[in-house]
Amino acid sequence: MTGNETPGWAGRLMDWLRFLMQLVLLNLLFLAGTLAGLVFLGIFPSAVAVTVLLARLRAGDPGERLVTDFITAYRTQFLHANRVGSLFALAGVLAAVNAATLPGAATGVELALSGLSVVVSGALAVSAGAAVVLCSRYRDTVLRTWRCALVLPLASPGMTLAWLVSIGGIALLLSGVSALLPLMGASLPLLASGLVIGHRLDVLALNDGGAPARRLPPRGLRRLTPA
């Protein structure tokens, strides 16, 4: 959040209100970008562009041209983000088809397979979140980004659990306070995802001998460069 010249609690309140308004604006930009990409081709680029701007908000330097910066990030990342997101879009479609075809009364084997499907779907959801954060921070080939996004949740169970709990808590909040859904339905989960996964990437970079301020990639992503 940005600083405010108003001292004390009033200044902090203004900072929080400004931050919340920026979250609402980013959520509207996400929706606009999704629609501009005819939904299917717009979700991943919008998520990446919003995550880029959310990182600036957390750093206290959001800039004064959020709309222009979003459009720039969206256009720059459009093709690459869709290539990366295609794997997770396909997995999401398959998961939806699988859920729709589950029988009403399942046998023990079918219940076990359903449980396995839920676990796999959860792991892919975390990987999709990791892919968004990776695309917002680094640029590399699609295959290498997929590999890191798929391996990171398995190699970081603490991060995976924190992500699932955070997203689950936000889902409960949004379902309980439905007025927040059109206001922060995308920006709030992306904010939590950037915090949890971004922190893990910074820790890996630090353990790998890098400086967090340089936002270096962890080991195995040595060829990545800041996006």
SSE topology sketch:
Blueprint: H1 8-36, H2 43-59, H3 66-100, H4 108-137, E1 138-139, H5 142-155, H6 157-176, H7 181-184, H8 187-207, E2 225-226
Antiparallel strand pairs: 1-2
Helix pairs in contact: 1-2, 1-3, 2-3, 2-4, 2-8, 3-4, 3-5, 4-5, 4-8, 6-8
Relevant terms:
two-stranded antiparallel sheet; 227 residues; globular; mainly alpha
Describe the structure in your own words.
With 227 residues, the chain is mainly alpha-helical. Helix content is 75%, strand content 2%. The chain has helices spanning 8-36, 43-59, 66-100, 108-137, 142-155, 157-176, 181-184, 187-207; strands spanning 138-139, 225-226. Strands 1-2 form a two-stranded antiparallel sheet. Helix 1 runs antiparallel to helix 2 (43-59) and helix 4 (108-137) packs across helix 5 (142-155). The protein starts with 7 loop residues before the first helix and ends with a strand.
* Oligomeric state, counting identical vs distinct chains: single chain
Q: Order of helices and strands, N to C?
A: HHHHEHHHHE
The portion of residues forming beta strands comes to: under 5%
Broad structural category = mainly alpha
Helix content: over 70%
The count of DSSP E runs of length 2 or more, i.e. the number of strands, is 2
| Uncertain parts | 211-227
Broad shape: globular
Distance between the amino and carboxyl termini: 22 Å
Could you give the order of strands across the largest sheet?
1-2
Number of helices: 8
Kindly state the mean pLDDT as a whole number? 85
Radius of gyration: 19 Å
Main β-sheet: number of strands, strand sense, barrel status? Answer: 2 strands, antiparallel
